[in-house]
Design a protein that fits this description.
Blueprint lengths: L12 H14 L2 E4 L6 E5 L6 H13 L3 E6 L7 H7 L2 E4 L7 H11 L3 E4 L15 H9 L3 E7 L4 E8 L5 H12 L23
Parallel strand pairs: 1-7, 2-5, 2-6, 3-4, 3-5
Antiparallel strand pairs: 6-7
């Protein structure tokens, strides 16, 4: 896996100003409850490509350089420049270490790293969330930040901060309660916010 810069590049003022104007013209409000957190695992319900159209400019306004992981093929040729500029980190799925282990290592070795993970793994409806984000947060000893898009109120941002207790089901109750009143772009694509029944045993 490619090394991640210890101190992410700050967003240039003109870019931040343009994104702020764009968000305002779109009628959205941005919320940030993360304070001075420098390392975290950020999650969110993802049902539409519009989440990125709103979310990426919002992060530029907040000057929160989040990173995401993608397969190495996304970082080849001309695509590499854009993928990296948008915070992408290439991962090698052929190595013996899985993505969870690689993510834990990155967070432990970095002073500043906000890792964005989609627990559903897709914009389609799923029966349950994947547990990877939780194991990464516990293994790296970092908080979980609940990102969200509320299309009813036209509000997005970084909401509740959770320090994982190690009790997956108890923490999922808190996560589920947070998202209960948040309306995604396509509610029909949002599955039940829960882990698989045997996830706690894994």
């Amino acid at each position: 896996m490619t090394n991640v810069p210890e101190h992410p590049q700050q967003v240039p003022c003109p870019v931040s100003w343009i994104c702020r104007l764009y968000i305002r013209l779109m009628g959205w409000t941005i919320v940030d409850n993360t304070g001075d957190i420098t390392k975290c695992v950020a999650i969110g319900v993802h049902t539409s490509s519009w989440d990125g159209i709103i979310g990426i400019p919002a992060l530029f306004v907040l000057n929160k350089p989040f990173r995401w992981m993608g397969k190495e093929s996304l970082f080849r040729g001309w695509k590499s420049f854009f993928a990296r500029k948008l915070g992408g980190i290439p991962i090698d799925r052929a190595t013996h270490n899985n993505v969870v282990d690689q993510s834990i290592h990155l967070l432990r070795e970095s002073d500043h790293l906000n890792l964005c993970i989609a627990p559903e793994g897709t914009r389609k409806r799923v029966d349950h969330w994947r547990t990877g984000f939780y194991h990464i947060a516990v293994g790296a000893g970092v908080p979980i930040v609940l990102g969200y898009f509320d299309y009813a109120r036209k509000e997005c941002g970084l909401g509740k901060v959770i320090i994982p207790s190690g009790d997956m089901e108890a923490d999922m109750v808190i996560i589920r309660a947070f998202y209960a009143d948040k309306k995604p772009k396509h509610p029909e694509r949002q599955g039940e916010i829960r882990f698989a029944p045997d996830a706690q045993k894994a």
